[in-house]
Write a structure and sequence with these properties.
Layout lengths: L1 H16 L6 H5 L8 E4 L3 E2 L5 H16 L5 E2 L2 H8 L1 H5 L9 H8 L3 E10 L2 E10 L5 E8 L5 H18 L1 H4 L6 H12 L6 E10 L2 E2 L4 H12 L7 H5 L4 E16 L2 E14 L5 E13 L2 H24 L2
Parallel strand pairs: 1-3, 1-4, 2-4, 7-9
Antiparallel strand pairs: 4-5, 5-6, 7-8, 9-10, 10-11
């Protein structure tokens, strides 16, 4: 039943991405959203004597969350590999201001950290749940009579966090823009302006394998053509004098697997140049993450997401 539900979820997501269904589907059925990628960082402590307890609580919370069906957790080892032990160690200082940067690095949309302290003969574990996309911050609390009884408190806290992220998914993740709305928004930037011919060439790899049908290149070509740019082939570009070239490299990589779900992370680096004069118009890069039940589909989606975000910054440069 769980596998069937997940399959249906991604079928709906596929229809939305293809423009067959409006994004309002997400607002109408938030309970059917896929689990959000979540990362747990060390908790801070106010007493130096409890310094190690913050890491212990985070490890225990990570373990408790990992067994819950509605949680898609970025493994601690993956976080350490990306940030390094020293950077991961300062995670208690994570704020809403730098959550987006850290979330992009570790491939998480929700970051969990907090504090552990003793007061009035009790141990308090206060969790801070932050969105890496919207800046929204929530809090949850659990108490224990002492550190020997901390396990039930952390188990309770894990359940609260899972329920909160499921209930508040729409506020923790940036609103999905309808493809038609995106096209209309970008068209407004090009109205009444002479648009240059554009040639797009972005080389992609997934792990160590070349990709036959580059997702970034395809997505950029489709959107640019729909908003009015003459999109040309390499042969056509060679015959024109006023051509803008969007070139670069992109790669996607397996993030992790949890049950039937797979996450992939992607990075795209591009340059925009005037072919005739070799003038550099724009340089940019973008990272993104996506989840699916198939690795290569998740990889493609993460690349497409990055491409769309890049276009939001590239198009204004092309119509100056």
């Amino acid at each position: 039943m769980k596998t069937l539900l997940i399959t249906r979820i991604f079928f709906v997501l596929g229809l939305v991405g293809a423009g067959c269904l409006p994004s309002i589907v997400f607002a109408q059925t938030p309970v059917e959203a896929a689990p959000l990628p979540m990362a747990v960082f060390d908790f801070q402590t106010t007493d130096r004597a409890l310094e190690k307890k913050g890491g212990e609580v985070a490890t225990l919370l990570n373990a408790r969350l990992s067994i819950l069906p509605d949680v898609f957790l970025v493994e601690r080892q993956e976080i350490e590999k990306i940030l390094g032990e020293q950077e991961a160690g300062i995670s208690g200082a994570i704020s809403a201001d730098n959550a987006a940067k850290i979330g992009a690095l570790v491939g998480a949309k929700v970051l969990v950290t907090g504090r552990v302290f003793e007061s009035g003969g009790k141990v308090y574990v206060v969790a801070k749940i932050m969105s890496a996309e919207t800046g929204r911050v929530y809090g949850e609390l659990a108490t224990a009579k002492d550190f020997n009884a901390i396990d039930p408190a952390v188990e309770e806290l894990a359940g609260k966090i899972a329920q909160l992220t499921k209930k508040q998914a729409l506020t923790l993740v940036a609103k999905v823009e309808d493809p038609a709305a995106r096209i209309e928004r970008l068209k407004k930037l090009t109205e009444g302006k002479t648009l240059p011919a554009v040639y797009v060439s972005v080389v992609e790899q997934h792990l160590t394998r070349a990709v036959i049908d580059p997702a970034v290149q395809t997505e950029m070509m489709i959107v640019l053509k729909e908003i009015g740019f003459p999109v040309v082939t390499v042969e056509e570009a060679a015959k024109l004098t006023d051509v803008v070239v969007i070139s670069g490299e992109a790669f996607s990589e397996l993030g992790m697997r949890r049950g039937n779900l797979v996450s992939c992370r992607a990075r795209v680096e591009i340059t925009v140049t005037q072919a005739a004069t070799k003038k550099l118009l724009h340089v940019d890069r973008q990272m993104d993450v996506a989840i699916d039940i198939a690795e290569h589909i998740a990889a493609k989606k993460s690349l497409e997401n990055a491409a769309l975000k890049l276009l939001d910054r590239i198009v204004p440069q092309l119509v100056k």
